[in-house]
Amino acid sequence: MTVTTAEARESIVTLSRWRTELSLVVRDAPEVAAGRVLREEVFRMETAASRFRTDSEISIVNASPGEWVPVTWYFADILEAALAAARWTDGLVDPGLGRAVDAAGYRHWRGDGVPTPSLSATDSSWRDIEIRPAGSHALVRIPPGLSLDVGAVAKGWLADRVAERAVRELGGDALANMGGDLRAIAATEPWTVIADPERPDRVESELVVWDAGLATSGTGRRSWRNPDGSVGHHIIDSRTGQPAVTPWHVCSVLAASAAAANSGSTAGIILGAEGPAWLAERALDGWFLGDDGEERVGRWP
C-alpha cells in the first residue's frame, strides 16, 4: 500500500521495525510532534505484545500458563481486540496460536536461533483465555498448552491507535501505515491510497478514503522453506493448526477500522475459495489475488 502525499503541509515520519516500515502522515502538524506520537506508540506495542522480547507482557503471560498474571490495561486492550476478532470470525483469527506459528517455522525464518517446538494435542482454546480487572492494572490467565500471538490484530490495532491519537493531540488529518495496515482519518480532504498488487500483470487499485481502515494479508512476504523442505508461512488455519492452504496470495480489505480490516483479510486468506463470499456476507469490500486470477468484493474499485 502506498499513499499519495503531494501536499507540502503534510508531515511524514517513518520507523523501521518488525521487518517492515511504519509511518505516520499528519496534515498541518509539526513533524517533530508526529514523530513523537509514532515512536511512543510503537515502543509501547513492542513492550506489550512482541513475542520476540523476553521482557514483553505477552512473553511473561506465555511463560505462566494457568496463572493470573498482572498486565497493563494497554496490553489488556490489545488482547481484548484479538479476542473480539476471534469471536467475529468464529475462531478463524485465533490469538492462541503462538505455538502453531512457531511450529510452522516462523522463529527459524526470523533467525532467532530458537529450536522449532513440537506440538502436542490440547483441549484448550482461545475461549479459555481470561481477562479481569484489578484496579490500576488487569489480570490475564491463559490455559496450559496455549501460547498467545496477537500478530493478526496488533498492527491494525496500532494503526487505529496512532491515527486517532495524532488527530486528538495534533489536530490535523492523519494516516497511519503499520506495515500495510492503514487507518485514515480526514476532515478537510480525503486520503488517496494505492493498493499495489506487487505483480506486473495486475492493475493497481486507487481508493479515496475519509475515515476507514485498510489491511492486506498474504502468504508471500513472511514465507519460508523449512529444513525438511516444506514451505511455511505465518497465516495459520486454526481448524488444522497448519499454515493455511489457500488459492490466494493476497487479500486486501476495507473496513471501518484497521483492526477489523486486518481480521477480515486474514480470515479471507484462511477461507480460501470461500473467502470472497464470507466478506460479501459481512458487507466488507475486498480484493483477492491468486495465480488463477482475482476477485473483487463489494465496492472495491
Give the secondary structure arrangement, pairings included.
Elements: E1 2-3, E2 10-17, E3 20-27, H1 31-49, H2 57-62, E4 69-71, H3 73-88, H4 98-103, H5 106-110, E5 130-134, E6 137-141, H6 151-170, E7 174-178, E8 181-185, E9 191-195, E10 205-209, E11 211-218, E12 223-225, E13 231-233, E14 236-237, E15 242-243, E16 248-255, H7 258-271, H8 275-281, E17 285-290, E18 293-297
Antiparallel strand pairs: 1-9, 2-3, 3-7, 4-6, 5-6, 7-8, 8-11, 9-10, 11-16, 12-13, 14-15, 16-17, 17-18
Helix pairs in contact: 1-6, 3-6, 6-7, 7-8
Description:
- The chain is of the alpha+beta class.
- Helices cover 31% and strands 29% of the residues.
- It has eight helices and 18 strands.
- Helix 7 runs antiparallel to helix 8.
- The model has no long low-confidence stretch (mean pLDDT 85).
Task: Give structural attributes.
301 residues, alpha+beta, eight-stranded antiparallel sheet, three-stranded antiparallel sheet, 8 helices, 31% helix
What is the overall number of helices?
Answer: 8
In the predicted model, the low-confidence regions spanning at least 5 consecutive residues are none
Indicate the percent of residues in helices. Answer: 25-40%
Q: Compute the gyration radius: what is it?
A: 19 Å
Shape: globular
Please state how the strands of the largest beta sheet are arranged side by side. 2-3-7-8-11-16-17-18
Class based on secondary structure composition and strand pairing: alpha+beta
Distance N terminus to C terminus? 15 Å
Instruction: Describe the sheet with the most strands.
Output: 8 strands, antiparallel
Following the backbone from N to C, one meets helices and strands in this order, namely EEEHHEHHHEEHEEEEEEEEEEHHEE
